[in-house]
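Sample intake — YlbF family regulator
Collected from: Alicyclobacillus dauci
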Amino acid sequence: MERVSVDRVDLLVQADELADMILKTPEIQAFKQAEAAMEANGEAMNLLRRFRELREQVAEFQARQVPPMHYSYLLEETDQLMKKLEQIPEVKAFEDAQSKMNALLNAIASRLSAAVEQRLPDVNFK
């Protein structure tokens, strides 16, 4: 069996072409639209901004191994913000679109991996 070598640059160009194709899929288009709609919702963006701030503060406490009882008020506020965010249709639509986009990207990555594995039966990727 003759092996043909592929230049790394050519392979990366092909990857860029695949990325361009992926960007044209309904899943990516729906994600872009949902993201724009969510970003246009001032309430959602304010809640998200505050949620991210709280998440950073919680992470700092956790990194310093502070017992949760000392920052439970942050955890409670985070939970309340999550409940409010889940009630906003634009946020829900964004999360759904993001999930579908991630499923598409995972399916593509899995397919590429499986195709390589099939062609290299002696290599164990697991």
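Post-analysis note: Helices lie at 8-23, 26-39, 42-63, 72-86, 89-119.
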